[in-house]
Specification:
The structure holds two protein chains of two kinds. Chain A is α/β, with parallel strands linked by helices. Helices cover about 40% and strands about 15% of the residues of chain A. Chain A contains twelve helices and ten strands. By secondary structure, chain B is an alpha+beta fold. Classes of the chains: A alpha/beta, B alpha+beta.
């Protein structure tokens, strides 16, 4: 907080003591962030968040390596901040292979390797999915990328600070992260850019004063970066215990709901999943109505009715979740502040909300009467 | 989503939930929407010999606005004649519940459900039905 109120130095103005103080604080934060992912401090480029990091990684690599080839491999279940830069490149003439995840939302190393061609310059696969929590086999994908000498970008926004990430062991060349996903401030993030074996270069997306090794110009957000460093340090020291605690709570929530309600589907991998993420679809009740019915519980839904674009979740759709079950999905996120009694309360609220809404649902009546909803002639409006 | 007090009131205390006997000649049933679209409304009216709607029931699968829109529709229908029911328009429902622009679809669905239920009753009595 002193960097918001008293310590006003510009980290790029090291000629005076104010700037020196800020630069030292940024350097300390850089080391803490680097430590969390097994990197060296000089490989960390601070950004405004994971969206910018993804844009810089994908468009930056595509731009500078265009002469080597113009093919990128990614997955349909990635975050929009990866999908949209790839779509943008497609419009510019690049070829993009959109891998389809399996029923759990996972991409395999074989799928990735089979898609690699001579002209492939970048693979962009996330560490863990934001909607369903499914963890990808990052280490194997990294190994495949290394074997075929293709750069591997990993959007690890959801994973960093929650599960162990090591850019060396996992063969990651570019890694996106965000401070606020690990309890740091909003509006700050970082991109890891490998410095050696190989040294990765990027076309900068923000031209200007040449900050951050020329990869991201602009005066550094000193308070944000200091906050991100502190968050990284805490995450590193608490990760193992916290993951164990959250996994137990997560399983309790899942089991509690499944024991008391029929026709519930778990979206995501049963075990290879982030400790704090549970995504469930409740047949015959729409997600937004479940969200509204529950008191004092903040969740999100893949239903089209909750998104500004009125598009249902692209992740669940890509995994092959039936379209109606996409509308019926709810994501529960557990975190550092989640207590066991809150899990019990949530189970009660979910069971009550879904039961009441099924009383109201014509689909539930029809299904219970033995009608196959897939064969009904619906009148779409 | 910003919802009005009126909408939340209907969502939390929906009026006229339930079903009427679909086979009865006095009952008209309308089912509109589709599960893949995220909303299905089933609306039923019971009409007496003088053409007055004496009861209305609904069941809805859908978001908060869809449930509130159908609840409001059944409330308005009771006591109306079959002819008066035609005057219940989507915009009236949207206005009463102050539906956000993205949710106008829900009021359209409710209007279609009303029409489908009335048409079903008319068909049972050999009366002409206006096509959309």
């Amino acid at each position: 907080m002193p960097y918001l109120t008293q310590k006003f130095g510009n980290a790029a103005s090291r000629i005076h003591s104010f700037g020196e103080e800020a630069a030292a604080a940024v350097q300390a934060a850089r080391e803490k962030v680097a430590d969390l992912i097994g990197a060296t401090a000089d490989a960390i480029v601070f950004t405004s968040g994971a969206t910018e990091s993804n844009n810089l990684a994908i468009k930056g690599a595509a731009g500078i390596y265009a002469s080597k080839g113009q093919h990128i491999i990614t997955c349909l279940a990635e975050h929009k901040a990866v999908l949209d830069p790839c779509r943008h490149l497609e419009k510019l003439g690049y070829e993009v292979t959109w891998l389809k995840p399996d029923q759990f939302g996972q991409v395999s190393a074989e799928q990735v390797e089979n898609a690699i061609a001579d002209r492939t310059i970048l693979i962009s696969i996330m560490a863990a999915n934001n909607e369903i929590g499914t963890i990808n086999p990052v280490e194997r994908i990294g190994a495949a990328a290394k074997r075929r000498k293709v750069l591997f970008h990993c959007d690890a926004t959801q994973a960093v600070g929650k599960i162990p990430i090591d850019v060396e062991r996992m063969g990651i060349d570019l890694l996106s992260m965000s401070a606020h996903k690990m309890y740091g401030p909003k509006g700050v993030g970082a991109l890891y850019v490998r410095r050696r074996d190989p040294r990765v270069r990027l076309d900068c997306q923000m031209h200007g004063g040449g900050h951050e090794y020329g990869m991201r110009s602009g005066t550094l957000n000193v308070p944000g970066i200091v906050g991100m460093g502190a968050a990284a340090e805490i995450a590193a020291s608490e990760m193992a215990d916290e993951a164990q605690r959250l996994t137990a709570l997560r399983d309790r929530l899942e089991k509690g709901v499944m024991e008391r309600l029929d026709y519930v589907r778990l979206n995501g991998h049963p075990t290879e999943r982030l400790p704090g993420t549970v995504n469930l679809s409740f047949a015959y009740v729409e997600g937004e109505s479940v969200m509204l019915k529950m008191k004092d519980i903040a969740v999100s839904s893949g239903s089209a009715c909750t998104s500004a674009s009125l598009e249902p979740s692209h992740v669940l759709t890509a995994m092959g979740v039936p379209e109606d079950m996409v509308h019926n999905s709810i994501r529960f996120s557990l975190g550092r502040l989640t207590r066991p009694d809150e899990i019990e309360y949530t189970v009660e609220q979910v069971v009550k909300a879904v039961t009441e809404l099924r009383e109201l649902s014509p689909l539930y009546d029809m299904a219970m009467a033995g009608i196959d909803l897939g064969k009904v002639q619906w009148k779409e409006v | 989503m910003e919802y009005s007090k009126e909408l939340i009131e209907h969502f939390e205390h929906p009026r006229n939930i339930g079903s009427l006997d679909e086979a009865s000649p006095r009952v008209g049933t309308g089912v509109v929407g589709a599960p893949v679209c995220g909303d299905v409304m089933k609306l039923q009216v019971e009409v007496d010999d003088s053409g007055v709607i004496v009861d209305a029931k609904f069941k809805t699968y859908g978001c908060g606005s869809a449930i509130a829109s159908s609840s409001l529709a059944t409330e308005w229908l009771k006591g109306k004649t079959v002819e008066q029911a035609k005057d219940l328009k989507d915009r009236n429902i949207a206005k009463e519940l102050a539906l956000p622009p993205l949710k106008i679809h829900c009021s359209v669905l409710a209007e279609r459900a009303i029409k489908a239920a009335i048409d079903d009753w008319k068909k049972k009595h050999g009366l002409p039905v206006e096509e959309n």
